[in-house]
Specification:
It is built from six helices and four strands, in the order αααααββαββ. It has about 250 residues and is mainly α. α1 packs antiparallel against α4 (about 145-180), α2 runs antiparallel to α3 and α2 runs antiparallel to α4 (about 145-180). The protein starts with 14 loop residues before the first helix and ends with a strand.
Length: about 250
């Protein structure tokens, strides 16, 4: 092997190393969880779903109106046939009527029937025209189905793939987290978990005079104090933010 080959970083073994590594794993898991729940792909899928739902609602509305018009046309045809048959009967009676008053009554009734038939014919024609226009509109509407379903399928697949990848990363981190926690005492883990729940980031290194968690500089007296407190384990509490401070 070449002398210049990179060597893998050694696994953390000291308490400070374990805590920093654990915090890094938990932070990465938090970021992945946030990305999983707030991925822009959720919006893409929601938009595609909404478009598909609106298309289906429009299709249902068009079909409902076409069916409604069909029923109206059928009813008009049936009623028109009844009125026409009635007028034919009256016309037959006219041939046998002698009294002028009776003839006048029959003619008035036939005129009324004719008006009703004409009105029905007008409504039927309007319904037929609307139905024809809606049939054309429905045909055009149905032509957009494939594109919408393709868009929905792609959005669903893209989100599912991203979620699957994130879940895989989270599973690896979960295994790594267990390993790191096994190297720490229950008491320290309890403190870590409590601070993490309250602060989000529970562990921060001291760089120079500054805590990298709250980014405040410690006084000279505080520096001396935290160094004394961390003399054995390398860990104490930040006097400003309360995080586990790696000294």
């Amino acid at each position: 092997m070449s002398d210049t080959a990179e060597t893998a970083p050694s696994a953390p073994t000291t308490i400070p190393e374990l805590l920093l590594a654990l915090q890094a794993v938990d932070t990465q898991a938090d970021q992945l969880g946030h990305r999983r729940e707030h991925s822009p792909l959720h919006d893409d899928l929601a938009s595609a779903t909404a478009a598909m739902r609106a298309w289906e609602q429009q299709r249902a509305a068009l079909r409902s109106r076409i069916d409604e018009l069909g029923a109206s046309i059928e009813a008009a045809e049936h009623r028109g046939a009844e009125l026409l048959a009635h007028r034919v009967r009256l016309e037959g009676q006219m041939k046998t009527v002698i009294a002028p008053r009776e003839a006048e009554a029959l003619m008035h009734e036939m005129a009324t029937l004719t008006e009703q038939i004409d009105e029905l014919d007008g409504h039927e024609l309007e319904s037929l025209e609307e139905q024809s226009a809606l049939d054309d509109q429905l045909s055009e509407h149905l032509g957009g189905e494939e594109q919408l379903r393709t868009r929905l399928g792609l959005a669903d697949d893209a989100l599912a793939a991203e979620v699957s990848d994130i879940d895989g990363e989270l599973a690896e981190l979960a295994g790594r987290r267990i390993e790191l926690r096994n190297g720490l005492s229950d008491a320290l883990l309890s403190t870590y978990d409590r601070k993490r729940a309250a602060l989000g980031v529970a562990v921060a290194p001291l760089v120079g005079k500054q805590c990298q968690g709250c980014h405040l500089e410690l006084s000279a007296a505080e520096i001396d104090t935290v160094k004394d407190e961390a003399a054995d384990t390398g860990v104490t509490d930040c006097p400003d933010c309360g995080r586990l401070l790696i000294v």
